[in-house]
Amino acid sequence: MNVIINAKVILENEILENYAVVFDTKIRNILPESQVNLESKNVIDAKGMYLSPGFIDIHKHGAYNYDFMDANNTEALKLLARLPETGVTSLYPTTMSMSFNDIRKAIEAVRELMHTQYEGTQVLGCHMEGPFLSPDWGGAQPREFLVPADYSLVSGLEDTIKIVTVAPEEPGNMEFISQCVDAGIRVSIGHTLAHYEQAMASFALGVTSITHTFCAMHQLQHREPGVVAAASESPNVFCELIVDNLHIHPATQRALLKLKGINQMILVTDSMRFASMGYGVSTLAGQRVTITEKGAHLDNGFFAGSVLSLDEAVINYKRNNNLSMCDAIKPVTRNPAILMGIYGRKGTLSSGSDADFVLIDENINVQKTIIAGKTVFDKK
């Protein structure tokens, strides 16, 4: 049995001090330190750092020179071994719009990772982004692969595809949304020309999130409110945000937070293979990408995802919105866990939850990451 002492334990709306967390692969108890018998326990002294639930990234294409479309799990495991450095304990690898044979291979590789024993960030399922998107707002998604939704293309993969991004206005896509919801697959709308009314209709069918809000969609206007206004009126809809301060201005982040509230925000990286590798030239779905201080861009000027890490996103969002520590971590713990139906097991510190932790300092620098009760990163 293990015990963490001298930590500031971050709960949903309060921080506990002088409390100990007792765990093996799961949290067994959280109780005053004075009540804990430390004999025969492995003691981790947090030295006053904050103890957070492990971070969850529901939208990530790659990093460390790997893209999940490569479908090479030998290389994927290297990425998963590195991600705990950024506090990420749970991940939904994300596909791109390519041939469906390539997409299926990538999803099947994710399925294999879900059932593989290894040390590193846990893969909980796949986020299928495309190819059922608007060809008029594909962003970095290659237009030649964008097609109307067809449920037969995902049939048999429901155990792995946990969330899919769809443009609801495309022919047949509303029916596809209903089929996914019936199958237990979460649906997010993005890369879309949907108007306000179409977005609201998709929410009525069971859509529960917006993919990289503000990006690749109509912007909020006084006569055409679009997806953002629809989301702001829908309390059960979560909003993904890429908070590298390049995709979305901090003032826009603050405006959306006032409209939606912290409990509906989800920070994502949407990062491509060159994330955490500095500046240079890389690829995304066969397209050349140049990475500079202004981000990752295709030759046509479109953003090619980001090179953001999730801990950087939390740091930026906390600073931009002057958030408390409790609120700062909700968009990478509680909120994605609720969206994905895993809250209680993940995304919280409570008895019976998985022992996935991140120890961070007051500036949210990751010091130690524990997954299923085992230390997988220690900065020391």
Question: Summarize this, please?
Answer:
This protein has 380 residues and is an alpha/beta fold.
Describe this structure as you would to a colleague.
The chain has nine helices and 22 strands. The protein has 380 residues and is α/β, with parallel strands linked by helices. The chain has two domains: 2-51 and 349-378, Urease, subunit C, domain 1 (Roll), CATH 2.30.40.10; 53-340, TIM Barrel (Alpha-Beta Barrel), CATH 3.20.20. The strands form five sheets. Strands 1, 2, 3, 4, 5, 20, 21 and 22 form an eight-stranded mixed β-sheet that branches. The longest helix is centred in the N-terminal third of the chain and has 15 residues, at 100-114. The protein is globular, with a radius of gyration of 20 Å. 52% of the residues are buried. The model has no long low-confidence stretch (mean pLDDT 96).
Shape descriptor reads: globular
The fraction of residues assigned to DSSP E strands is 25-35%
CATH architecture classification of the largest domain: Alpha-Beta Barrel
Taking Cα atoms only, what radius of gyration do you get, to the nearest Å? 20 Å
Low-pLDDT residue intervals, each spanning 5 or more residues: none
- What share of the residues lie within helices? 10-25%
The counted number of beta strands is 22
Q: Find the CATH superfamily of the largest domain.
A: Metal-dependent hydrolases
Q: Let me know the average pLDDT.
A: 96
Question: What structural class is derived from the secondary structure elements?
Answer: alpha/beta
Briefly, what CATH class of the largest domain? Answer: Alpha Beta
Number of helices: 9
